[in-house]
Structure formats: C-alpha cells, structure tokens
Amino acid sequence: MQERRHTAADSRQRATAFLAFIACAIVAFAAVRPASSSSASGAATFDIVILNGRVIDPESKLDAVRNLGINGGKIQAISTTTLQGRTVIDAKGLVVAPGFIDLHAHGQTPENYEHQAMDGVTTALELEIGVSDIDKFYAERDGKAAINYGASVGHVPARMKVMRDPSMSLPSGDAAHRQATDDEIRQMKEILERGLQRGAPAVGFGIQYTHSASRWEILQMFEIAAKYGAACHIHIRDMAENEPANSLQALGEVIAAAAITGAPLHVVHISSMGLRAVPKLLHMISAAQKRGLDVTTECYPYTAGMTDLSSAIFDDGWEKRMGITYKDLQWTATGERLTAETFAQYRKGGGMVVLHTIPEEIMQIAVASPLTMIASDGFLQDGKGHPRSSGTYCRVLGHYVRETKTLTLMQAINKMTLMPAKRLERLAPMMKHKGRIRIGADADITVFDPNTVIDKATYEQPANYSEGMKDVLVNGKFVVKDGQLQSGATPGRPIRGMIRKGSDASY
Question: Which of 64, 343, 475, 497 makes a 20 to 30 Å CA pair with 488?
C-alpha cells in the first residue's frame, strides 16, 4: 500500500512538471510569435507602423484596410487592430503594396537608384546584358545602394572580353561582327559558369547586339544556364515581321534552346522586338507554357525604346529591319530628331538614341497581357536618357490603371512585384521574401496615392521624378519619406544566388 502511495505521488509530480513545461512553452512561443491579423496586440511596439492603408498583396489576394508592424527590416504584423510604433505612418486613403521589382535596369548607379526609388522601385536588377565579373559588380555597390541591386553574368560582356572588343558598353568590333571559334566558345562558357558559381542570379543575352553568334554558340550558353537552373534573360536576335529574319523566328530560336536544354527562358521587352507581331509572340509564349516550358516575358509602358547608336543594331539595313527612318530617332543629349547627316556624325562617337517604333495599340496589348511583367530597361546618365528610367512604374499605375483602365490595381501590382520575384526564386531564394505583404517578408514597401500617382518624365526631360509616391521602404528603412528622397540612405542589399564553395573569385 505504501509503495502504491509513493507511485501515485510520483505520477502527480511528473504530471505537474509536464503541465508546467507546456505552460512555459506556450508563453515562450507567444513571446516570439509575430502578431498577425488575428492575434496582433496593441501592447507591442514596432520600429515602424503603417496605419489605415489599403494593403494590396498579389500572393494572398488581400485588398483591404490593414495596419502593418515592422521590426528588424521584416513585416511582423498585419492587423485589423491599432499597432504602436516608434515611427508611425498614417496611410489612410493610400495604397500599401510590396516594393516594385525591376528585372531589367541597366542604370546600376546612385543616380538611377534614386530615380527608381521615387518611382516605387525597391529592387533593380541588370539581367539582360549583365556583367562578366560578378564579384566586382557586387563589391562596388556594397553598402552604397539606396535599393536592392544585382546583375546577371552576361553572354555579351563575356563575348566582348574573349574577343577583345574595344567598346566600353555594347559591342562594336569583333564581338558584334565575327563568328566565334570553338575555343572562344569554350572561354565564354567558362566565364558564364564562373559567374554562376559566384552567385549570379541569371544569365543575360543580347543576341541582336551579337548577331554573328551562331545558333550553336547560343545553345552552348543555354546549357551552362541549365546546369545551374538559371533563367536566360534574352534580347532576341531579330525584330518585327520582315522575312526571313524576324521576331517570330528569333523567339522560336530561344524557345527551342530552352526546350532542348531545360533552361528557364525570360524574353525581355517583347513590345519593342515584336512591334506589330506582339500578339503572335504572346501566342507562342502561351503555347510554350501550356506544353510545360518555363517561359516568361516583360514589357515597358512606352512607345519608344533606347539603345547606343554605335551598336551593331544600326549596321547597314537598319531602316528596313526596324521599319523606321532617321526622323524616328531622337538623340538623348539634345532631344533633336536625326537626319542622315547627324546620324552619320553621332554614330562615329556613339551615344544613346531613342527609337520611336512601337504603336500605341501594341503597347496596350503588351501591358494588358497576363503573360507580361513590367520592367523598365532604364538607364540615366547625368539626367539624360529615356523617361522609362524615372517613370515606368508610376506610369503603369497612373496611366494604365487609373486613366485607361487597361489593368486593375491588383493586376498591375502583381506584374511589378510577385511575378518578377517568382521568376528569380529558384536561383536567388531571398526573392521568396520579396514582392509580398505577409508575415516574415522583407519590409520592401511602397505607399502611394492611387488618385494622383503618375509619371512626370518625358523624352525631353527624362529625369523628372514621378509623383504620388509617398513612402518607400527598403529592408525596413526609408528611402522616400513624405514624398521626399532621403539623402544618404543606402539600405539596399545584393540579390545574389548561392556562392559555391571552392569557386574561384578571380576573373
């Protein structure tokens, strides 16, 4: 009997200890668990609180008034109840959305980052042309960028390096005009593979600028991308509908390369390449997706493109290939339209020229398509360039959402946030935490007035800031506050793939 009493007492002690353990675990979990819409407590104090905003999140389809709490650069609360914060933004009447992600931003400089921040961009990546030295690119921007940044390892710069092309930007010598030898192709493959080993988030191609690159050469580069699961961001070989070389044939080339190798494919600025063939190109991409191919595309919301006048695009026959003439070219340095004489004069030294080529109705089709993401293809230097560098995202919100109603607000934000984030997630896992308003996501956030947001940049004044963007946070830090750029703010971080152990950082 006494033995049984001891056993019962022991059992009661064990049960009491177990219940105490469970109680402690619940308290500990409650202490660290971030507040959500169903459990947020006004007692918590956050670094930043955004109150009363219309929160739009394409991933969850949330479109409702909510309060956000931000700590440590992360979204920690999404609540219907009031939150307390050391810094509080009253966003009543404003939209609160994920920061915009630009997959195609050539201007990787402080000037460009500031203009993009004023346009709501929190991540800008140069994935079309790319760079040959990944480590150098990231080292040069470490701790110095207002927004998140990144670059692909590029076939164009690799070709220029191997062929010793004299140009500083786009090729104009052998890299533009000569077929590569087998050994040169091998060297290019080595540069691309090294870049991917060092964390390049994609592989870039500008095939129209390297028109002499054989189909075999391009296929070999796709094979390297496929080995690492890297998306190939492609400026296709030809444009418009001229026979035999045209945009349909060029798109077919890279879709075939993707199918053969298994590399994901992203086709850049489809509207400026397809022109009146854009509906046919979109049909091809849709059909490829239905066959299970990983193919995506993008456009910018302008009826003109921009490139370097010294590039191979303007080799003999350019008027027929593009369906334009001198008067359709606008010299960015002065704003003047070109003539045969000024074309010849400016082409010798090179420089940026705007190409007025895209019909407005084609732009409407491209922007409206559920297949397209929005990307700027932007570049500014000393205030000169294309208005897309400063106004792409606010133009979509102001013109194509509010004015023409081509898109709903949810559709537009999806094209500018979640879709580009998902394009890069496979190789750059940090993108799983961007392009979303959800617990644990990076606090890359735009707050704007949907009734006034609009682009103000023009072809004559491309550096005009957009209007209506009230607040922009990058990793939980203000880069725009109360509509004002925050001078000296550099919270941008690198967007980079995994760096393989043992990979050689030298180039």
Answer: 497
Q: pLDDT (tens digit, 9 = 90+) per residue, 212-231?
A: 999 999 999 999 999 999 99
Give CA 211 to chain center in angstroms: 26
Q: Edge to edge, what strands does the sheet with 372-374 contain? A: 100-102, 121-131, 148-154, 203-206, 232-235, 265-267, 295-299, 372-374
Count CB-CB contacts under 10 A for residue 138. 19
Tokens representing residue 423 in the block: 């394009």
pLDDT at residue 23 greater than cutoff 70: no
Give 3-state DSSP helix, strand, coil % of the chain, rounded to 5: 40, 25, 35
Q: Are residues 264 and 297 in the same domain?
A: yes
In whole angstroms, give the CA distance from residue 171 to residue 359: 28
Q: Which of 15-24, 172-181, 192-201, 417-426 has the lowest mean pLDDT?
A: 15-24
Query: In angstroms, rounded to a whole number, what is the distance separating the alpha carbons of residues 47 and 146?
Result: 19
Task: Check: CB of residue 279 under 8 Å from CB of residue 245.
Answer: no
Q: Is 501's pLDDT higher than 90?
A: no
**Quick one: 405 exposed, middle or buried, by C-beta within 10 A (0-12, 13-18, 19+)?**
exposed
Torsion, Cα of 173, 176, 177, 181 (10° steps): 100
Rounded to an integer, what distance in angstroms lies between the CA atom of residue 25 and that of residue 48? Answer: 28
Which strand (E) or helix (H) includes residue 479? strand 477-481
Residue range(s) defining the domain that contains residue 403: 99-303+358-428
Per-residue pLDDT reduced to its tens digit, 88-142: 999 999 999 999 999 999 999 999 999 999 999 999 999 999 999 999 999 999 9
Cβ atoms 462, 389 nearer than 8 A? yes
CA angle 148, 151, 153 (to 5 degrees): 160
Query: What pLDDT score does 44 carry?
Result: 81
**Final residue belonging to a domain, choices 368, 403, 428:** 428
Q: Which two tokens stand for residue 176?
A: 């533009």
E strands in 241-371? 265-267, 295-299, 304-308, 329-331, 352-356
pTM for this one?
Answer: 0.91
Is the pLDDT at 24 greater than 50, yes or no?
A: no
Strand pairing class (84-90; 45-57): parallel
Q: Rounded to whole angstroms, what are the CA distances from 388 to 345, 354, 410, 489?
A: 26, 11, 21, 23
Is residue 194 domain-shared with residue 289, that is, in the same domain?
yes
AA letter at 91? A
User: CA 144, 145, 147 angle in degrees (round to 5)?
Assistant: 160
Q: Are residues 336 and 404 in the same domain?
A: no
Strand partners, 352: 308
| Cα 131 from Cα 141, distance rounded (Å) | 14
Q: Are residues 312 and 268 in the same domain?
A: no
- Tell me, what DSSP letter sits at residue 144? T
Tell me if 101 sits within 8 A of 416, measured CB to CB: yes
